[in-house]
Amino acid sequence: MFVSPGIIANAVKSLNDIHPFYGTTFLACKAENLPVGRSIPFAISEIETNFLKRYYQTERESSFFYTAFITTVRNKRWINLRKYASSTLQSTRTRSAFKHAFIHESGSKNWGWHPLYRAVLQDNLKENRNLFHGKPIPTFELAAWLFRDVDFGDEPRPSDLIQRFKSEFHIAQDENLLFDFGVPTPSEAGTIFSDEKINRAELRKLIGDPPDAKPESSGLLASLSIRGVGPAESVELSAAPRLNLLTGDNGLGKTFVLETIWWALTGHWIDDNSVAQPDIQTPRSQPRIRYEIATESSRSVDSSFRYDWRTGQWIGKRRREALAGLTVYARVDGSYAVWDPTGTVVRSSDVNVGEMPKGLTTRERAKAISRLQGMEQIVLTNQEVFEGSRQTEGLLRDWVKWQNRPDRYPFAELCQVLELLSPPEMRSLKPGRIQDSIFSHLEVPTIAYPYGDVPIVHASAGIRRIISLAYLIVWAWTEHQKISERTREEPQRRMVILIDELEAHLHPLWQRTILPALIQLGEALSSELKIQFFIATHSPLVMASAEPFFDEDTDKQFHVKMSAEGTVTFEEKDFVEHGLVDYWLVSPTFNLRHPSNAPAEKWIEEAKRLQLEKKPSVNEIRRISEGLTSVLASTDPFWVRWLFFAERHGVEV
Predict the structure, then answer these.
(1) SS3 of residue 189 by DSSP
(2) What is the distance, to the nearest Å, from the Cα of residue 86 to the centroid of all Cα atoms in its chain?
(3) Helix (H, G, I), strand (E, B), or coil: what is residue 245?
(4) How do residues 188-241 score in pLDDT, each as one tens digit?
(5) Which of 71, 172, 592, 647 would you label with 130, given CA atoms 20 to 30 Å apart?
(6) Peptide bond before 41: cis, by omega within 30 degrees of 0?
(7) How far apart are CA 537 and CA 511, in angstroms?
C-alpha cells in the first residue's frame, strides 16, 4: 500500500509555511549522522544535492526539483539542482540565523552540529511566527511527501509514516519539540493509503511540470475547439478514442478541421495554405483554437491559442506538455504528412547541435533543433511518396530493398497490411516479381494479377492510393521502432491516422470494405498498438460499412451543414443505422430527397406534392405520369405508390 494522491496533495499545501532549511539541510545532515559538538570533513553541498535528488526530484531526467516550502520568489516551485546547494542553501547555512546551529569555520570543509542546535532551530520557528505561524513541522504531511513512492505493506497505519520518518532521519527524543507528530484519522483525511503509488500523470496534475520536462507522448486528440475562424462560427469536437467520421457537403470545412487537428497533434501547419486564417472582412470575436491531448497515462493536457492579427500567427504556450503518437495524414490530393515525436522521421545526420551551422536565423535554428528532437514533420507529394525525397527513399526503392532482404523485413508487415486493405471480388494486393524498368536503371515492384504482374507505376489510381497509404504507415512504424531501439525508449503504443475522402478513386465494392479493414490495422502492426482515426467521407457505402462495428463508447460521427440562411454549423451526431445504402442517401447525413438521378427526384417531388392535394387535377396526374415514365426506371419502388394513386383518380399509366 502507498500514500494516496489525496494525502500527498494535502501534504504539499501544508508545507507552504515551512522554511526549506527544515525539509532539506536539516534532514540531509540528520540522515548522514552529522555529529553534535564537533566538526568532521563533511561534503555538505554534495550531500544536500543527493538528498534533493532522492526526495524532491520528481522526474529523474529533469535538472529541476520541486519545493513545497516557502520560496524567495512567490510561487517559484521548480528550482535548478545544479547550484542550489552550493549557493542558496550555503547562504542559509552560513549567513542566516541558521548558521548558529552549526560548528563551521569559514572556508573550511568541516561541519558539525552546535551543542545548542536544537534550541536554535526551535527559536527560529518561534521568532518567525508571523512567517511560519510558529507551528512545529507537520511531520505526517512531510513524511507523506518524502515517502510518496514507498510501499508500506498490506495493512499500513498512519503512524507508520511517523515511525519511518523518525528512523530514516534519526530523530532524537530531544528534537521532538520541532515536530508535530499528530496523524489524521481516516474521517479527517479520507483514504490515507491506496493500492497503487501516485503515478507521473497524477503528480504532474498536482505540482505541474519542471521547466525542462520531456513532454508525454503517445497522445491522442481528446478535444478541439475552434472559434472565429473557418466556415463555421465555432467547432466543438470531443473526439472518440478509435473512430471519428466527418461528414457534410463540399466546401463547409471538413478538410479545414482535419488540417487543424494535424496542427493540434503535431504543432505544425502542413504548409502556408493550410494555416487557419480568420477572414479579416468578417467581424468576429477574437479567434481562438483550444485543444486537449489525452496521454497514455490518462492525463489530459489543455492548450489554448489566440490569433495575433499583427503577426498573423497563433500565439500560445510554446512548450508542449504532451505529444501525439506517431501520426500519418493522407490528404485528398495524394500527398501525405508524417510526424513522429521520437524522431523516427529524421535522419541522425540532418542536424548536430554541437556542430550547428553558423549564421542561422532564429527561425532556422529553431527548425533545426526541432528536427533533431524529432518534432519536425515530413510532407510528401504524391510523386515523392513513390520516388523519394530528402527524408525518404520512396516506395519504389524501399519496396525493392525490403523484398530482396533475406529476412524480408519489413516486407512481411507490408504484405500483411496490403492483404488487409485489399479490394474485394479480386485477388489480394500481393507483390509480384521485381522487374527492370525499361525507362531507367531502377528496379520496379509489381502487383500480381491473375493475368500477370503489373508494375506499381502502372496500377490504377485507387490501387496506387491504397498502396501508398499502406507503405507510408509501415515505413513510419518501422522507422519509429528503429530509433526507439537506438534511444532505448519504448515504442509508441498509440497512433493517429487522418484520411481525407477515404473513398477517393475506390470502386463501390472497395468503399464498402476499406473502413472495417482500417479498424483492424493496429493489430496487423502490433498487438499493443491502438489507432485513433479521423476520416472525412462523402460515401454512403463507407458510412454503411461502419454499422457492424460502430461502438458509441469508442466511435463518433460529426456532421457539418449549412442552413438556408447560409450559416454553417458543426455538430456531433448520433450514429443511426440505416441499413440499405439508399436509406443512407436520404438520411440527414447526405440529405438526398430520393436515391435516384436529379430529374427523377424532381418529378417524384412534384408527384408527392400532387398526392397531398384534396382534388388533384387529372391533367396534372397525366403530365406527371409522363414525366415519371421518361426518367424513372420501371423497377423503382415509387411506381407502386404512384400507380395506385393514378388509378384511384381514373388515370391509366
Answers:
(1) helix
(2) 40
(3) strand
(4) 656 899 999 998 778 888 888 888 877 777 889 999 999 989 999 899 999 999
(5) 172
(6) no
(7) 10
